[in-house]
Amino acid sequence: MAEAILQVSGLVKHYPLTQGILFKKQVGAVKAVDGVDFELARGETLGIVGESGCGKSTVAKMLVNLEKPTAGEIRYKGDDIGKLSGKALRSVRRNIQMVFQDPYTSLNPRMTVGDIIGEPYEIHPEVAPKGDRRQKVQELLDVVGLNPEYINRYPHQFSGGQRQRIGIARGLALRPEIIVADEPVSALDVSVQAQVINLMDRLQSEFELSYIFIAHDLSIVRHISDRVGVMYLGRIVETGKDAEIYDHATHPYTQALLSAVPVPDPEARERRERIILAGDVPSPTNIPSGCRFRTRCWKAQERCALEVPLLAVPAEFRDVSGPAAHDSACHFAEETVVVPAEETDADGNGNGNGPG
Ligand SMILES: Nc1ncnc2c1ncn2[C@@H]1O[C@H](COP(=O)(O)OP(=O)(O)O)[C@@H](O)[C@H]1O
Ligand code: SF4
Ligand SMILES: [Mg+2]
């Protein structure tokens, strides 16, 4: 693997739950993020996927310093950013930028596009001296495929897709190395989603960016991710290279998510397994013992309530070097063909032990 530009270990964010008005007493915690580890290599895209409420945005906010971790480390090029201050911290903040989910609410409606994109220069004037800013903003508009003459327009004069281009231009203004994109296309029409993803793909090569790309649906990150991490209730439960996750998932939760991915070919759609998860996602204030997925897992056994499965290559795959040998936090990890392989990848590696 190329040099790691970002290393996250043991990342935790617990929001205290308090009771009482005068004398606030902590009665519990919302365990939004509960021990997350991953690495991001330079130039790589890591997709983070999971249902709404599993802690994706909280991870994103900690990466860009909008939230302070309860515990854990975020290392940028080896430096623990929680221990940096002054100039060194400013430089890290400049290099990790965020693109937000909803382009309708994340752009200030009273500011012109020029002021929105140029706003980061107010905090980091060293990147663009005042006299150069207008030209820099116009260059950025051009880079994201918008007419540079629109610089004095307001957000409401743009479509959703165009607004997200503005959000991306702002994310690029400080020439960061890492972009954390929190569901950047979830609020957009399906027809526009691909355009924005293609734009991000192009910008990645043009500006040598590394991406954390967050989505609630595995199908969205498929074409842009080199690796994928699947989150459930504040933790990553399975992670691997693109093909390892999409074609050789071993964790029941990933398999359930895959079974919900749209399959364009009607014949393949017929043959695909549908896994319907029982029950709702448990509250992050009350995480199940042992495996946190066990209350919805069709394979759960007694051991699952007693022992926390670690995110590692499961024992049964440790001696084989195939695509199933990737990190999966399950005591009973096994491959199951959920989505039939496409003709180009008809290696039929599944064992047919689907859910009953
Ligand atoms: N400031 C906060 N205070 C209390 N709970 C929060 C706060 N922010 C998020 N949460 C809770 O943390 C969990 C994870 O939220 P979030 O990171 O937004 O998930 P996702 O982005 O995956 O939908 C949710 O249960 C959410 O309600
Ligand atoms: S450890 Fe048990 S409950 Fe958890 S995913 Fe695996 S089989 Fe299901
Ligand atoms: Mg979110």
Folded structure, characterized:
This protein has 356 residues and is of the alpha/beta class. The chain has two domains: 4-15 and 30-225, P-loop containing nucleotide triphosphate hydrolases (Rossmann fold); 251-345, no CATH class. 28% of the residues lie in helices and 21% in strands. It is built from twelve helices and eleven strands. It has helices at 56-63, 86-95, 113-118, 120-123, 133-143, 160-172, 190-207, 218-221, 242-248, 252-259, 266-271, 302-306, and strands at 4-19, 25-41, 45-49, 71-76, 79-80, 96-99, 178-182, 210-215, 227-232, 235-241, 327-328. The strands form two sheets. A seven-stranded mixed sheet has the order 6-7-8-3-9-10-11, sandwiched between helices. The longest helix has 18 residues, at 190-207. It is globular and about 65 Å long. Bound molecules: adenosine-5'-diphosphate (ADP), iron/sulfur cluster (SF4) and magnesium ion. Magnesium ion (MG) binds at residues 56-57, 182-183.
Task: Give a topology summary.
Layout lengths: L3 E16 L5 E17 L3 E5 L6 H8 L7 E6 L2 E2 L5 H10 E4 L13 H6 L1 H4 L9 H11 L16 H13 L5 E5 L7 H18 L2 E6 L2 H4 L5 E6 L2 E7 H7 L3 H8 L6 H6 L30 H5 L20 E2 L28
Parallel strand pairs: 3-8, 3-9, 6-7, 7-8
Antiparallel strand pairs: 1-2, 1-4, 4-5, 9-10, 10-11
Helix pairs in contact: 5-6, 6-7
The protein binds adenosine-5'-diphosphate, iron/sulfur cluster (SF4) and magnesium ion.
Adenosine-5'-diphosphate binds next to β2 and α1.
Family: Belongs to the ABC transporter superfamily.
Pfam families: ABC_tran, oligo_HPY
Keywords: ATP-binding, Nucleotide-binding, Transport
